[in-house]
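ok so for the tutorial part 2 we go from a plain amino acid sequence to predicted C-alpha cells. step 1 is just haveing the sequence, like this:
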Amino acid sequence: MSHTKWRNVIFALIAVFALVAASCSSSEDAEEPQVVEPAPTSAPEPADEPEPADEPEPADEPADEPADEPEPADEPADEPEPEPEPTPEPTPIPVPEGSTVGITDDTIKVAILRSDSKSLEEAGILPDTGDIPRNYEVFAEQVNARGGAGGRNIEIVFHAYPPGASATDQQAACIAATEDDQVAVVHYVGGVTAETVLCATEGHERIAYMLSGILPQEIYDRSSGRLFSQAMTTERLVGAWPTMAEAQGLLDGATIGLMRGDIGEHEVAAGVLEAALADAGYELAEQVALPCQGTSCSQVDIGLERMLAADVDTVFSLLPPSPFGIAVFLAAQAGWEPQWLVSDIENLVFASVAQAVYQRGPDPTLFYGLYGLSYGLDRLSPDEHSIECNAVFTEVTGIEYDIVENEDAWSAVGSTCLFIKNLEAAANWSQETYGTLNQTTLIQGFESLTDYRLGDVTGSWSPTKHDAPDAITLKEYQADCACWVEIDGARMLLDQ
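step 2 — the prediction. this is what the C-alpha cells look like for a chain of 496 residues:
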C-alpha cells in the first residue's frame, strides 16, 4: 500500500473515534448543554422544521366521550351518610292583644240576662219553659267535668228583668253583669232591647251572645265584632219579606200599609221593607208609626183610622204582641179585616205569643190566616242535638220534658245546650290556636263555627257575618191549634 493510502485510512479512523467519544460524553452528563441532538430512533429522518409533537390527535377515541375516563370520585363508596339536620321548631303564632276581663287561667265568667216570665207561666198566660237557670248550670257542669272551655271552668251568674221591660229597666241587669260581676260574656236569652245589647258590647266592651231578637246591622257594627246571635239581622229578614209574600200571592192587586212603633229599630225595618217592595214593583199606600214604650204602644185606634182612609187591605205589622192584638180586635169591631202579615221582629211568629195573645182574645178566629215570616227559631224539630241534650238533662236532673206536651221547655233545653257547646268550642279553638284565651281570640273562635244547626235552623258565623241563620220561611197561623204551620215549599236560602 502506498504511503498516501495509509494516511487516508488513519484519518478516517480518527474521525470515527471522535464521533463515538462525543456520543458517550452527551449521555453521561445530562446537565451539560448538548452540542449534537441525535434523531429519534422510531421516527423518520427529521426535516429542517420537525412537526410539533405536543398535541397528538388520538385515532381510536370517540370525540364526545373518552373511552377510558374514570368514574367521578366525589362520593366514595365507603363514606358514611351525613346525619340529617334537626327539624326547626315551628314559629309560634303571634297572640292578638285582647281584654282578659272575666277570663283567668282557670275560669271564664258568663252572665245570663233574661226576662223573668215565670209568674206569667204559672198564671197560664205563657207556656212553661222549664227551669232556665237550671239548664245553664247542668250543661256548664258537663263542660267543666270534661276539661272546661279552653281548659277553664265556666262560671255563670244570672240577672233578670220584668217581662216587657224597657231599655231603662234592663240597664240595671247589664251594669250588674259587666261592672259588678266583671263577666267576659253576656248572654241574652230573649226580650232584649238594642240599647241593652250596646250596654254590654259598646259601653262595657264585652262579648254579647243573643239567643233571639232581630236587630239592625248597625247594632252589630257598633258592637265592633263583639255581638253574635242565633237570630237574623233586620236587613236580611225584612229584605226578603216581599219576595216571600209575593210567592204566596199575598200582594196581587193589594193596597199595602205598614204599622210600626216609633222606635229606631222599627224605622230601620220600615226603610228596608219599603225599598224591597219598590224593587218588587209595589209601594206603601200608608205608613203609621205609633208612640211606643217597651212593648206597649198608644194611639192604635188613630193608626187604624189612617189605614182605613187609605183603603189599605194588606198590612205589614212590626208592632209588639199586645198592641198588635189590640189592632186586630179594634179593626174587626170596625168591620175591617185586612190581610195581616207579621214577622220574627217582636217575636210575633212565636208559639208563646200565639198562645198568650192570639188564642186568649175575645175571638181567636180573627187571627186565622195570619202569615208570619220567620227564620225558624221558635219551634225546634227533634234533631240529633236537641235529643241528645234533653237526654243528658234528664240523666242529670231526673226531669223529663215531653216533646209534645212540654215543647217549649224541651226546646229551651236544646237552645241552652247549644250556647254552652258553642262557647266551649270557641274557647277550645282559641286555646289550641294561640295557647291562650282573651276577648280577641274568643271572638275568632266563635267566627270559626261555620257549621251552625239548631233544629231546622241552619247557618254559620264568619268574620263578616255574626247572625247565624241562613234560611227563612213563611208560616200560617191556625186558630184551632193556636200554632204556626210552615207552608210547604216556602223555605228560602239567603245570601251569606
